[in-house]
Write a structure and sequence with these properties.
single chain; Endonuclease Iii, domain 2; Endonuclease III, domain 1; 2 domains; 13 helices; globular
């Protein structure tokens, strides 16, 4: 089953209210963060290509590379698939990212079909492509497909946010946080929004964010 799809701020607010009613620590976090962001983005090939481009580089560098790819009309699979490695190097992609980008272009994924797949199947389909890990696939399901009941426990900010909000002795590892998140179903992606927002509030208090 696909489950609930988040389409608007009202969906996020509904999930936040449910979670706050069930878990007092979420209510506390929301009292500090205020309304949560929607954070939805477009789905499709370019969304995943952008995720590959953004790996392990600064936001500014990723934007610059993406702008060059757009200028060269290389953000579409049919165009990227006939690009040479030299073309992609000129846009700023590393050798590894060139391999990932070309693998994505050759994957044959029917992105419209992902909208109707169960989340587990979406993740399995995406991680079969070199360069796309579980975190990227879960974030895609969360924000590009609007899945309400998906979490990304490998995210360090979520791990740290959970540690602070739930007063844990240490940052939970991915498996432990995934187990925790099951209690927040069917609004796991809203729980993630709460934890991200709370993490940023706390880091600002510490003078880090």
């Amino acid at each position: 089953m696909i489950g609930r799809i988040i389409r608007s701020d009202a969906c996020v607010a509904e999930g936040a209210a449910e979670l706050a009613a069930r878990e007092p620590r979420f209510a506390h976090a929301l009292s500090l963060t205020g309304p949560l962001p929607l954070r939805l983005r477009e789905d499709g090939f370019s969304a995943l290509l952008n995720a590959i481009v953004s790996q392990q580089v600064s936001v500014a560098s990723a934007r610059a590379i993406w702008a060059r790819l757009e200028a060269a009309d290389m953000t579409r699979p049919e165009r990227l698939g006939i690009a040479t490695e030299a073309d992609l190097r000129d846009c700023g992609l590393s050798r590894q990212k060139i391999r990932y980008a070309l693998a994505l272009a050759a994957s044959g994924i029917r992105f419209d079909d992902l909208r109707d797949m169960p989340t587990d199947q979406v993740v399995d389909t995406l991680v079969a492509v070199p360069g796309i890990g579980t975190w990227t696939a879960e974030i895609y399901a969360m924000f590009s497909l609007g899945r309400a009941d998906v979490f990304a426990p490998g995210d360090l900010a979520l791990q740290e946010g959970a540690r602070m909000l739930f007063a844990l002795d240490a940052r939970p590892r991915e498996k432990a946080l995934r187990d925790m998140a099951r209690a927040w179903s069917p609004w796991q992606s809203v729980a993630a929004r709460i934890l991200w927002a709370y993490y940023h509030v706390e880091k600002k208090r510490e003078g880090i964010g």
